[in-house]
Design a protein that fits this description.
Blueprint lengths: L4 E12 L2 E13 L4 E5 L6 H8 L7 E6 L2 E2 L5 H10 L1 E5 L10 H11 L4 H14 L15 H13 L5 E5 L7 H16 L4 E5 L2 H5 L3 E6 L2 E7 H4 L12
Parallel strand pairs: 3-8, 3-9, 6-7, 7-8
Antiparallel strand pairs: 1-2, 1-4, 4-5, 9-10
Helix pairs in contact: 3-4, 3-5, 4-5, 5-6
Length: 242
Amino acid sequence: MAPVIELVDVARYYQMGDERIRALDGVSFAVEAGEMVAIVGSSGSGKSTLLNILGCLDTPSSGVYRLDGTDVQDLSDDDLARARNRKIGFVFQSFQLLHRATAVKNVALPLVYARVPARERVARAVAALAKVGLEGRTKHKPFQLSGGQRQRTAIARALVTDPSLLLCDEPTGNLDSATSEDIMGLFHRLHGEGNTILIVTHEPKIAARCPRAIRIADGKICADGPGADVAYMDLTKPVIAA
């Protein structure tokens, strides 16, 4: 069975006048179905560029990215849009919820784009909200929900299409410490249910909660291993990627 994510020698560079900036420089790794992995790095490390490539929002300048065994570079724009809608569930730091829509309508939105019939959309959205512990909040709008509840709504929206991958961009960045722990507990439960989860973060404490972490610096992978080991490693010392 093909990995959910496979990158082989991926580079992404941008031309700035006469200078070529390498945001990613020869990145290679795979994520198997059912894994929970953190991508950790400081600002400017290349993790945002990597996130855009993994989410099919950008393509490599060179190298290969395969999603569920399909070479992303071979996909048309329409196929890329379908991949984003059906194979990837996105979770954002800022929740990205529609302020005037109820929780159930927010969660059902990806199913609208997938042209799922209205009755089925509602049923699946309600089930997704129940999965994240919000069965009693289906008719609430975002302003009626706490920060943690808004992020749970966003996670339900990511789950509603039954994607191959949950791709989470700083999912605890707007939450206090207690709520962050609560959300990480939810991710661990979803991981235990077989979901493949990738969390992009600059926070070592979040990466340390993941079974596996990949550290990126200067556009390159500098470590790959157990989250608790990789998250706090001293980058002033030589490191070897596993």
